[in-house]
Amino acid sequence: MRIRPSHQRFVQVIMAVAMLTSLFSPLLARPVQAVPTFDESTITLDGLRDADYVQIAEDPAGDLASPGPGDWSGVAWTDMTAMYAAATATTLYLYIPSPAYNNVDSSGQIGLAIDTNSVPNSGGTTDAWGNAITFNFDNIDGVTSAQPLLPDYLIRGNVSREGGWTEFRTWNGNWDTGAGVNWGGITSGDIGTHIAYSYGNGIELAIPLADIGNPDPAHVKLQFFATQSGGGKGAYDTVPSDDQSTGWDDPTTQHNLAHRARLPVDAQGDLANPGPANWNGVAWTDTTRLHIWADSQDLHLFVPMAYTTTVSVGQLGLAIDTGHPRRWQWRSLGQCRHLRLHRHSPESRLDPRHRPPHPTGLPDSRQHLRPQ
Fold first, then answer.
1. Between the CA of residue 274 and those of 28, 29, 31, 36, what are the distances in Å?
2. What's the confidence (pLDDT) of residue 368?
3. Three-class secondary structure assignment of 129-196
4. Please, are residues 262 and 217 in contact by the beta-carbon 8 Å criterion?
5. Residue 67, SS3?
6. What is the pLDDT of residues 23-78, one digit of tens each?
7. Which helix (H) or strand (E) holds 255?
8. Angle 300-301-305 from CA coordinates, rounded to 5°
9. Is the pTM of the predicted complex or chain greater than 0.70?
10. Which residues contact 181 (CB under 8 A, 6 or more apart)?
């Protein structure tokens, strides 16, 4: 689903699923049926992009420096183009495509800067592994910050072809916490406990939320970078787009964080019993996650659910608070998982047929979303 915002500002989105009240009394009279299971942990850590991932950041392809990293196939994998995210109640998953990663000559290191507390100047400014990379994150999804945010955590690792050793460093006045511990878990091959590589595909991380202080995933800000070992080497490429090396040995200062993956979670299996939990026709209403991300024009939302075309019935609801009443309209929000809402154009605001269904711009308890 996509929502076109009128300007950049914080948009609070609450997802609510409303059921037809007329369904509940028949449910109690029906025999209990087997409810299709929907395991929210559907992501397999294997270096492949699972269906639950949503894109949260991007970078142009083919932008490695030449002369420099753009001239050798061994670091062609560092040409970053996108970052995808997903989450469960316990884990933040990230996937970074790297189709040029190969088992012949690929060489280098990965890095992931993580900010969780949004407190300016509260993390580290230098790279934990000694590269010429400086952190000064003063741009969050295109919004300039008066004071920079700094990473609270830093994941640094060698690619799997070079052993895959991966450390998870925590800032405590220095980056010493986590040094010498192979957090990633690769001891042989390409798949560990927290990181996985797949030749010709990409890099995948599974980060326990407990390891980053159990934040609301909506508050996590990220930048992934690729480089090689060396005190004079900066970031060869990053996602989101940022300062990158103009040659083999060029220091970089990183400014941009992605803060687009709002991933609220809800416990699985919490439908009322007796009630909706007793009928597979509404098993899809056991929603567990709300993925939210954005680009320069649109806000996107994705809700995984065990929806089937054969038995599923019911309604969806989406409540939006932008601080600007009458700015949004409701369209095509029936039985589906991917929704798109448009901001009013000046013309549509003059047409009463396109005005929001309620003076506040939000549906009241009697209003439900139906297909057009």
1. 7, 10, 11, 17
2. 41
3. CCCCEEEEEEEECCEEEEEEECCCEEEEEECHHHCCCEEEEECCCCCCECCCCCCCCCCCCCECCCEE
4. yes
5. coil
6. 333 433 444 333 333 344 579 999 999 988 889 999 999 999 999 999 999 999 99
7. strand 252-257
8. 150
9. no
10. 167, 168
